[in-house]
Structure formats: C-alpha cells, structure tokens
Amino acid sequence: MHRFKVLFAIGALGALCVANSASAGSHPHDRNGFMIGFGVGGGNAGIEDGDDREWGGVGNFRIGYALRPDLVLHYEGSAWLRTFDTVFGDFTWTFSTHTAAISYFPGNSGVLLRGGVGFGVVSVELDSGSATTESDETGFGFLLAAGYEWRLSRKFALGPHVEFDYQAFGEDLAWSDQLSGVLDFNWYW
C-alpha cells in the first residue's frame, strides 16, 4: 500500500508542475453553476490478501454544481473493470466507488484536488456461455484525486488526474483498492 501512496504523491506533484507550464492565452477558469463530466483511463487494482495487482479499464462520471469558481460539489462514480478468460468462461471483476465529492481548484486555477466519501461495490460475474452467475458486496468507499484541467473553451475543460479508490465490504471488512490515471472531459454552465 505504501508504494501506491508514493505514486499518488508523484502524480499530485506532476499536476502542480504542469500547472506552471499552462499557456497564458487560454480561456479563464470560469466555473459557475451546473457541471457534468466523465473520464476514461486505466489502472491497477488489488484485493486484500492478494499479492498480485491486475490492470484494467477505468471510467468515471460526475455531475454537480459549482458553489464558487474554485469549489465544485458533485456526485462522483468511478469503476475499474477487468475480464479474465478462464476454462469456466469469462470471469469479470468490477470495483466501483460512488461518493459525494468535492473538487477544489486552489487559486481558481487548473490544479485539481478531489475527495469523496460514500459506498463501494465489488461485483464478480462468471459467464459460462450457457449461464451467468453474479455476486455483489457493498460497503464503505472513498476516493482521492489530484490533477489539472485545461480550459479549451468557455464551457469545456480537458485534463488528466491520478486517482486512488478504496472499498471495504463484507462482515470481516475485506478491502480492495485501485490506483488509476484518467483523462477527464468536463463541461461547466
């Protein structure tokens, strides 16, 4: 778990360095009212007592409201997915986090700091071709992210972020976590 905290810190530092190189002629960061966005990327996930981490696809969705130009309150849903081809059929793991989140943009710049708390879900599905078996566990979840967004037009911003998601589920509070890199597409009105 320590190495992932180090990677998260490196990603946050990288986002701050990128912020200093942003072009001076770009559109101002005007965040007012309604916002909606999504992101796509990849990352690795691990589960308690698992030595190996697996790479998979990552997607997220957010919808909310800019309370101030530097503060957005929103729902953030993030999911990691990986399908394995086994002798029994296609085996799919999905880890998702659904949170009430805050995105903070220090100094109303493009630098992004995000955190959210809510619930996490782990889903396992086995599709043998003739039958599908599925199991879900729900519990506590949170996410932390750092990145940067470039304002490409008055209402549209694009940018990368590094995200850490965590879920605790079941009676024994087993856990899973993901570390991912995501490219965000955000619209503000």
Kindly list the characteristics that best describe this protein.
189 residues, mainly beta, Porin, eight-stranded antiparallel β-barrel, 1 helix, 67% strand, elongated
Descriptive overview:
- The protein is mainly beta and 189 residues long.
- It has a single domain (2-20, 34-188), classed as Porin (Beta Barrel), CATH 2.40.160.
- It contains one helix and nine strands.
- The chain has one helix at 2-20, and strands at 33-47, 54-68, 71-86, 89-104, 111-127, 132-148, 150-151, 156-169, 174-188.
- An eight-stranded antiparallel beta barrel has the order 1-2-3-4-5-6-8-9.
- The longest helix is centred in the N-terminal third of the chain and has 19 residues, at 2-20.
- The chain is elongated and about 55 Å long.
- The chain starts with a helix and ends with a strand.
- 32% of the residues are buried.
